[in-house]
Write a structure and sequence with these properties.
It is built from nine helices and eight strands. By secondary structure, it is of the alpha/beta class. It has an eight-stranded parallel sheet. The longest helix is centred in the middle third of the chain and has 13 residues. The two termini are 19 Å apart. The N terminus is likely disordered.
Amino acid sequence: MPAQKRVKDRRVPGQTVGVIATAAEFRLAVRMARPPDLFELRLDCLFPAPDLETQIDRLPAPVIATARHPAEGGEQSLPLQARRDLVLRFLPGARFIDIELRSARAFRELLDRARRRQVGTIISFHQFDSTPTLGSLRAMASRAKALGAAVFKVATRTDTTTQLGRLLEFITENDSGLPVSAMGMGRLGAASRLLLAQNGSALIYTALRKRRIEGQLSLDEFRRAVSESGPS
């Protein structure tokens, strides 16, 4: 089916995620009258996050806890053990944890604990300089499924229509049996967020205040774009 036809299908977007990476964003999130469906706690940014795990029940939406690998945009260059301990601290209050595919083997014990607590796992992959081939994306989704993921998340560079088209095809032709969240960064990043949401992306990540990635939309911008591009 041509990409243009798929865009006109206007599927209902998936769940919105508001990213919390600073104490100020946490305070803003607590006060939100119209929150996103989920909040992502960027623990690598919030480190050492003293006592924060005792406050997450103040948030008006469930939490995804993650601590990024430095090679995938993580801040403070936290070593593996520190990232694992951070996510473990927040496991009791989380709806999901996000573990990068590259770290999944080292985090097997954490994945097992999450499974026992019935906390969902998002297996993620971030590539800031390009978009992998369709075959590579599908292979990573298969690995994520084998690891017991609830969602496979992929964020890649989309400076060209070819790169964006690759992500669009990955979403629309997804036969992994696993929900996929896909988003672009770079010149076509903003357009990709709406386009991929309209075509089946399971989670749509948005900024609450400061945009941390080129092409990221704020929650309000995404909601306005969805409203303005409603059914024709």
